[in-house]
Predict the 3D structure of the following.
Amino acid sequence: MKQETGNTDKMPQGMKKLAVVGSINMDMTVTAERIPQKGETLRGDSISLIPGGKGANQAVAMAKLGAQVEMFGCVGDDGNGALLLENLKQAGVKTEHIKVCKDTPTGIAMITVAENDNTIIVVPGANGRADRAYIDEIKPYLKECDMVVLQHEIPLDTVSYVVDFCAENGIQAVLNPAPAAEVPMSVIEKVTYVTPNEHEAVLIFGEGKETAELLKQYPEKLIITQGSKGVSACLASGEILQVPARPAQVADTTGAGDTLNGAFCVRRAAGDDLKAALLYANTAASLSTEKFGAQAGMPSAQEVEKELEKTAAQPE
């Protein structure tokens, strides 16, 4: 484990310390005219190796927006692992407690980008080694954090274990339940925020409930992302909040959800109310789609603020 200082010089005044416990992958991204159908072979246009993983993506999004953030997770003792650690370090993410696992490959995601959309297959590799024993090793460092952010690309048992630890120690926990998987209601009750998309929400809460009804059941906790329709939540008053998506010239949607989650956590930790945090997060996510690559496309705080100022200046 290498020690480095992170990008604390960009941290806004009063910003809290954030942690991400999650996946660190190398994305092998292929671009093509369209996404192939089952059994079909297409000629691709290009191939790139790009740092990724939902956990690492969200940590980088936070760092680019000026947050003090530390990444916790596992990589393999291979070339990809070394490259990913260096990439996180260069982005301003603290990496000193990432575990390098011997004789284990670093996680990889195979991504096809076409038709303003993507398909993804993830091979977990070392991410599967982020187990309870690893969490026990990093508990002292998690206690120093104000908010811990989790996803589903590490073992679900580990996610539940971290959520329990956060609840016991008064640490805010945010769960982005992606890729889609069933989540025990005990986990939902303990987290501060849960941020599924519409498909993930159905898998967690079941079918048959209208979005508004579901949101009212978990005010200021459940945040449902809806792609081009924006994002929805329920305020403490019972009012349904619908934040529309910002129109974008889409180049690549990879990482947009991770940008939204990272930006939301940064602004909530900084003290923004739910509406302001979601407006900021939606804007950041939209900007991220206008550039190629998950992390490369993530905007800086200055870019988001400039866009928000431009939007505010437009007539109703």
Notes: The radius of gyration is 19 Å. Residues 1-13 have pLDDT under 50 and may be disordered.
